[in-house]
Amino acid sequence: MALHRAVWFAVLLATAAHQALAAEKYNVLFIASDDLSVRLGCYGDKQAKTPNIDRLAARGVRFERAYCQTPLCNPSRASFLTGLRPDTVRVYENDTHFRETVPDAVTLPQTFQRAGYTTARVGKLYHYNVPASIGTDGFDDLPSWHRTVNPRGRDKGDEESIFTLTPEAKGSLRFGGTLSWLAADGTDAEQTDGMIADAAVKLLGELRDGPFFLGVGFFRPHTPYVAPKPWFALYPLGSLATPRAPAGWQDTIPAAACEHRKPQENHLFEEHRCLAIQAYYASISFMDAQVGKLLDGLEQSGLASKTIVVFLSDHGYQLGEHDLWQKRSLYEWSLRVPLMISVPGNPANGSVANSPVELVDLHATLAELCGLSAPKTEGHSLAALVRHPEQPSGRAAFSQIARTDVAIPRERKVDQVTYLGHTIRTDRHRYIEWDGGTKGAELYDEAADPEEMKNLIHDAAQAATVAALKQQLARQFPQRRPHELPNPRGFTKLFDGKSVDDWTQRGGSATYRVENGLLIGRTVEGSKNTFLSPPREFADFELEFEVLCDRELNSGVQIRSHEYAVDTPQPSMPKRIRAAGEVFGYQCEIADRGTGTAGNFWDEARWTKWWSEPSAQGKDAYRDGEWNRYRLVAQGDRLRSWVNGVAVADFRDATDESGFIGFQVHGIKAGTGPYEVRWRDIRVRELKAGDVVP
Length: 694
Prior knowledge:
- By secondary structure, this protein is an alpha+beta fold.
- It is 21% helix and 27% strand.
- The strands form 8 sheets. An 8-stranded mixed sheet has the order 5-4-8-1-10-14-2-15, sandwiched between helices.
- The protein is globular and about 85 Å long.
C-alpha cells in the first residue's frame, strides 16, 4: 500500500510539473540569417570562426540534416513562415508576394498573435531585395507584426566602394545577384546587421513582460559580402579551401542542373575565387558576432530561462562546389541549412538530431512547443525530436527549384517559370528529377559520396533504389509543371484542357480546337473577328491565362461583352451599321511589341476607341512569339490588366456591369495566314462585395 501511495504521489507531482510548464508561455526569439550554409564550427567546418552560433548549438538541439524547401530567398521564406510548401503558396521566384496567391494564409507570427503574443520584427524575415531594400519593409507581411524596425547602416552608403564582378550592371544584378564584396571601414555597430542586433536587444527590454515572438533577420552573409576589415583579417588569403569539381564531372549530369549558372561565374580568376570565399567567411563571422550580442542581451534581460531560441538560414550556399556559386541548385550545399532550437530546461539540449527535417516543419514545431493551436500546415512538428533527438523520424526531406527565363527582366518574372526540378533527400540518398524526369535525373549515395560527385542514375545496381525514390517523389509532387498545379486563391478552371464542346462561337468562322491541353484558335481567310465563349456570363471577377500568339497575328480577350441582337447603328458612328451577331464590349489586347497595345483595352464595335491608351508598360511587358501571362480584374466600374506581372491598364467605366468572356481569333487580310493563337491555364475567380484585389 505504501508503494502504491508513493507511485501515486510521484505521478501527481509529475502531472503538476507538466501543468506548470504548460501554463507558462515561452517567449520566442527567432533568428534568421541570409544565404548561410553550414559553414559553421558547430557543423564541423574547421575554417569557420563562429563561437556564438556554436554556443547556441551547445545550449540547444542542433539538426544535422535540415533542408529548405526551395533554395531561393522569397519562396523559401514564404514557405517556412507559413508552414506551406512552395506549390501551395505558388511562389517560385523573388517577385511574387505570397498574399497574392494565398491571401488568407495564417503565418507563424500570426499564430502567436492569436494566442495573445506581441510579435515584432527587426531586419529581414520575409523577402528583401538585397541590398536595394535594406532600410525598408521589403516584401514584408505587415499583418504578421505589431512592431517593425528597419535599420539602414553605412553598408548602404558604401555601395560605390563595393567590388563586383558586374560593375556595368544595374540594380540587383550589380550587387545582390552576383559575387561582390567589401572589407569595410568603421565598426560593427555602423553596419546594418550591427544596428539590427542593437535594435533587437533594445526590444527585448521593451517586451520583457511578454509573451513575445521576436523575429530578428540578419542580412549577412548575402551578397554583397560586407563586413568591417577586422573580420577579413581572420581569414588570410590562401588559408581557405577553394572547391572545384573534377574535370568531366558536368558530362555526367543533366544540363538542367547547372542551367542557372551565371556567365561571370563560369571562368573565375583564382584571385577572385579566393577573395570571394574570404569575404563570405568574414561576413559569417561578423554576423556571428551580432548573434552573440543578441544572446548576451537575452541573458542580461533575465529572459533566457523562458525564451525559446531558434536559429536558421533560408537556404544553403555554394562556393564553387560542383563549379557552382550561390544558390538555386538541388545539391546538398545549396539545400542544407543550419537549424538549432534551444528550449529552456530541455534535457536534450546539447544533442544532435541526425534525421532529415524541413524548414516547413517550423510552424507546427514552435506552436506545439509553446502549447498553441496552429492552423493546418504542410510540415510535421519536430517537438518530439527536440525532446528526443536520438530517435529517427522516418521521414525524408523534399525540395524544389524553378527554372525561369533569365532573359525576362525582374519585374516580369511573375508566373514565368519554364520548368521545375524536384528532389528527395533520405538518410542515405539524394534523388533529383528535372521537369518530371524529361530533362534528366540524378542519384547520389550520400554515405559513400557526400560531395555528390558520382551520379548513379544509370547504374543498374541502383535500379530498385531509383524506382522507390521516384515513387516517393511522385507522391509528394503529383503535378510537376507549374501550369498543371491546383489553382490558388479560389480560382476555378474555366478551360479544363480537354473540351470546349459546350462553349459558344460568335462572330466569324475561325476554327478552334483542343490539342495537348491547349485551346488553339486558327485563322480562316476572309473571316471576321471570331470569339469563343464559355457557357456563362460574369460580372465581377479575376481572370488569368497564358497566351502564345503567332507574331503575324494580334488577338484579344473580351470581357463583359455582348452581341448585337439586330443590325444596329454603331453608337459612336451612326452611319456605320453593325450586323446582328457582331460582338461589342471591352477587349484586352494581345499584340506584338511593335504596336505597344498589349494589355490595353480597346472598345470592340461600339465606341471605336481605346479605353486605356497604348502604353510603354504594355509594349515592354509583352514578349513576341512566347507564352505571356495575362491577369484581368473587373470589379464594379474599375477594369485593370497585367501582362507578365506588369500593371498596364487601369480605368473606370460603368457601361457594362456583366457579360460574356470571349477568346478572339482576329480576322486577317486575303492572301495571308493561316495563323494561330494558343491559350492555356485559363482560370477565373468570381469576386464578392468587399473583396480586396491587389
